[in-house]
Design goal:
The structure is a single chain. The protein is an alpha+beta fold and 361 residues long. The chain starts with a helix and ends with a helix. Helix content is 57%, strand content 17%. A six-stranded antiparallel sheet has the order 1-2-3-4-5-6, with no helix packed on it.
Length: 361
């Protein structure tokens, strides 16, 4: 590889890697907040926090990597302009076409990674996340219930549960004490043994055998009732929605190809768009980063960030329009991707020709 290509590739790679690290740190904070919110609402068991955090980040990579690549290239190219290196490189006849080689050596591997994440790893992570949560709803161990200690009912609905002993799979237990309270009434339920069951709608029930239930007013009053039962079912607060393998967001990309539903077609276009948009953003970065030697470069970075926001928001909105039928599936997201690619190519190659024309003048 020529020394110039090695030097430019090194500059582009270092700037992109540094930008990616910063964006990942920010993304980890956002994902951590989302996961903690789901745990607080009882939708995700606390014991699955780290696994869910990793899966969320994997789903976000198709959106993080294009931004990191664009901003990294703009920072790298902007530094070359700031230190007057780019005018020197242009003076020896290195134009946009000559810069394509080191540029593509960085861009193409990242485009492949974005494609792998968008078409395969992202849907797999979403599917695995839902499966783990659905399975956890059938198991009180993962939901935070430990034998021999009082535990708040899942979802924080004003109650506690105590279990003296539990089976290894967390579905059967002994010596159960449950306290629940509402706005006006409260109740205490005890049982010698019980089992956790989940119906077809994903509702979770504690089926208790041979116990007592006492119900009475929450504040002052003597309106208490005691009942001895042979079997009693207590509905637990709802957790995450039931896992649906036919949900287009959870289906694999090959399965979407044979699905005639509009939602499946919209999801397929949503997974294809980031791959081409990544390439478009990378080409835009070079002309957008062009500046005078002592000119501030962060204003142009803001322009690049705004271009990214517009492209991604239109992609998300276009997916919704495809699902609702406002846009034909045959049109898909090509109305966004192809103009973005054409604009990126025009900016990249047109910028070089304008620069040479001015220099000759």
């Amino acid at each position: 590889m020529p020394k110039l290509d090695r030097y430019l590739l090194s500059e582009f790679t270092q700037a992109t890697f540094a930008t990616l690290v910063v964006l990942l740190i920010v993304a980890v904070g956002g994902a951590f907040t989302d996961v903690l919110g789901d745990i607080a609402r009882g939708r995700v068991p606390a014991g699955m926090m780290l696994a869910q955090l990793g899966l969320v980040l994997l789903k976000w990579l198709p959106l993080i990597l294009p931004l990191a690549l664009m901003l990294g290239l703009m920072l790298g190219v902007g530094r070359l302009y700031r230190d007057s290196e780019m005018p020197v490189i242009a003076s020896i006849g290195v134009g946009p076409r000559r810069l394509l080689k080191p540029l593509l050596m960085l861009v193409l591997p990242i485009v492949l990674v974005v494609g792998a994440c968008s078409l395969w790893l992202g849907p797999w992570a979403e599917r695995l996340s839902k499966q783990m949560i659905s399975e956890a709803n059938r198991n009180l161990i993962v939901a935070g219930l430990e034998p021999g200690s009082f535990t708040e009912l899942p979802g924080g609905k004003g109650g506690v549960i105590y279990v003296g002993a539990m089976s290894n799979d967390g579905s059967r237990f002994q010596r159960v004490f449950v306290y629940r309270q509402g706005e006006d009434r409260r109740e205490i339920t005890t049982s010698n043994d019980g089992v956790l069951k989940v119906d077809e709608q994903g509702n979770r029930y504690l089926t208790l055998n041979k116990g007592f239930q006492v119900e009475g007013p929450r504040d002052n009053g003597l309106d208490f009732r005691m009942m001895h039962y042979a079997s009693n079912e207590l509905l637990l607060p709802a957790g995450e929605t039931k896992y649906d393998p036919n949900n287009p967001e959870l289906m694999s990309t090959p399965a979407l190809l044979g699905d005639p539903r509009r939602e499946a077609g919209a999801q397929l276009h949503y997974r294809l768009a980031p791959v081409l948009l990544t390439f478009a953003f990378a080409l835009m970065a070079v002309p957008l980063a062009r500046s005078m030697p002592r000119q501030a470069r962060y204003g142009r970075i803001l322009m690049g960030f705004l271009a990214y926001l517009i492209g991604v928001n239109l992609m998300i909105a276009g997916t919704g329009w495809l699902e609702t039928g406002k846009i034909s599936l045959s049109l898909g997201l090509w109305w966004l991707v192809l103009p973005m690619l054409a604009l990126a190519l025009w900016l990249y190659f047109g910028d070089g020709r304008l620069g040479r024309a001015k220099a000759l003048a």
